[in-house]
């Protein structure tokens, strides 16, 4: 009874992370309720993004320019690369404002199950970039999960012998985190990595 | 660093029910990840919905035709109207397949706080429809909340003396519901409305 257009809208919305079939229906209804102020602007911005956003051929970031604004920014240190799983991790790193180098987006993590190996992750491309662009330091910022750390080890292996310094993000108690709510693995890691006060 | 197009996409997505700022960011990233298979189709269907979907001038339903397919369906009983809060409630009622009359969408509930009175809810329009279209029965299907029931009482008041039968949905234990997980109000209502076995 919903009609084919709204049915299709619900179906596409339900494929967004965080929206199940029921919340997709609510979202579709909300969009139709707010046709002028929400649905039409969203249709325009989606068309705009589809039209303009490209994947940076150098680092894999998303931007309206290629090379992306980070790769093109001469004030950023091209000798330091931060290796991240995906663009979401790149955004998270950028929000901190704490990193002034450039990035390399893997586009995933090693996964035998999903058939994702070193080539799918563009690791040969990273090695080539390190060799050709005078990169001197690599920071591995893959997630602190089994897949993330396996991927980090593989990247580190492939970079061995290229004369590049390789480090990984520290593991420990999150800032503002209470021990009560932390898992054992994090507390153990923080204990092992304890620092002089 | 995200760029103005993606920033705007995140901002609009975060206005959907069920998506906060963080999940809107994830959804935007997912859309850009799946440009061909998700972002572009969604842009098209939104433009399509914006273009085609109208509010039915008779009942307030959303459809690509006006009067909507329910109001236009001669197999449905135009003498019975189900009064609902919004199109979401109409959809929910339609999914049951249990109602073969037509609808009247109020577009909200009475709310002194939000300045929503009888006129904003189109109650005069409902009264006019009842008088002019030979409606003989009204089913009040507003939610079982204070606002929903206040609204139902107001509608019933306005319809008094028009010679139309007015009923409300039964309150009771939801089918499949266990007493353990039900609130006291529902159990009391079910007890008061107990039926001979």
TrEMBL record, chains A, B:
Cite a single GO BP annotation.
DNA repair
* Chain ranges of the Toprim domain: 79-174
Q: Which GO terms describe its molecular function?
A: DNA binding; zinc ion binding
Keyword set, alphabetical order? DNA damage, DNA recombination, DNA repair, Metal-binding, Zinc, Zinc-finger
Pfam families linked: RecR_C (PF21175), RecR_HhH (PF21176), RecR_ZnF (PF02132), Toprim_4 (PF13662)
Q: Where are the zinc fingers (C4-type)?
A: 56-71
User: Record's InterPro entries?
Assistant: DNA_Rcmb_RecR, Rcmb_RecR, Rcmb_RecR_Znf, TOPRIM_dom, TOPRIM_RecR
Family assignment from sequence similarity: Belongs to the RecR family.
Main role? May play a role in DNA repair. It seems to be involved in an RecBC-independent recombinational process of DNA repair. It may act with RecF and RecO.
Q: Which HAMAP family does this UniProt record tie to the protein? A: RecR (MF_00017)
Instruction: Specify the protein name.
Output: Recombination protein RecR
Q: Taxonomy-wise, where does this protein's organism fall, top ranks first? A: Bacteria, Pseudomonadati, Pseudomonadota, Alphaproteobacteria, Rhodospirillales
